[in-house]
Amino acid sequence: MKSYGAEAVYDHACPTVAVDIRAKSRNTLFYALDCITDEISTTVCYESIGRAGGHYVSLESSLVLLRTRKAVHASFALGYEMFGKPVVLSGEYERKTNPEARKTAVEWYKTMASLCEKGKIKSHPVKLLQGGWEGVLHGIDLLRRGQISGHKLVVVVDTP
Predict the structure, then answer these.
(1) Domain check: are 68 and 133 in the same one?
(2) pTM of the prediction?
(3) Which of 29, 50, 133, 146 is at a distance of 20 to 30 A from 8, taking alpha carbons?
(4) One domain, residues 30 and 68
(5) Do residues 2 and 53 share a domain?
(6) Do residues 13 and 33 make contact, with C-beta atoms less than 8 angstroms apart?
(7) Domain region containing 96
(8) Quick one: CA torsion of 31, 39, 79, 144, rounded to 10 degrees?
(9) From CA 5, how far away is CA 123, in angstroms rounded?
(10) Domain check: are 43 and 73 in the same one?
(11) In this predicted model, which residue has the larger pLDDT, 99 or 36?
């Protein structure tokens, strides 16, 4: 990960990961984006945010799991909002049209495209699997067994 520009790298399975992150950030980490959003990742994020608090954003609405720190403001990002149309889903997933989210997404896209063109953003290394639909099943099995980490799985599936 350091070759991708990370200043520090942590093992998410290490029991002291949150303590280590707080030490590295001198207890001032303010933002945490939880791209996994399970009980373990949520706990690590909440515990990594510094003493003064901050913002926790997940990609799932299950943030009620650990609302244990009043100084941490939690929300969840819903990617569909970026299309500038209402999101017709049930419960807390339903959203009205959000022009600000659309505007932010357009600006973000421009920034990311520019960074990619300049070679400042690298994608995950690709692991190509063969076998069509059987290859997809094999890839899912590899993920379930925890045998894939840090790679983007790609399976070419020919459709009739």
Answers:
(1) no
(2) 0.71
(3) 146
(4) yes
(5) yes
(6) no
(7) 79-122
(8) 130
(9) 12
(10) yes
(11) 99
Rounded alpha-carbon distances, angstroms, from residue 146 to 17, 142, 155: 19, 6, 18
Instruction: Give the per-residue pLDDT at 136.
Output: 94
Q: Give me the amino acid identity at 160.
A: P
Lowest mean pLDDT among 1-5, 65-69, 120-124, 137-141: 65-69
Query: pLDDT digits over 109-132, tens only?
Result: 999 999 989 988 878 889 999 999
Distance CA 25, CA 46 (A): 14
Q: Rounded CA gap, 139 and 154, in Å?
A: 9
The amino acid that residue 85 corresponds to is K
Q: Which two tokens stand for residue 101?
A: 């989210």
In sequence order, which residues have a C-beta less than 8 Å from that of residue 102 and are 6 or more positions away?
81, 82, 83, 84
Number of domains observed in the structure of the chain:
3
19 vs 36, more confident: 19
Pairing mode, strands 72-76 and 126-129 = unpaired
Q: Which two tokens stand for residue 83?
A: 């299309």
127 DSSP β-pair partners:
153
- List the beta bridge partners of residue 54: 72
Cα–Cα distance, 158 to 74 (Å, whole number): 42
What are the tens digits of pLDDT across the range 35-48? 888 888 888 999 99
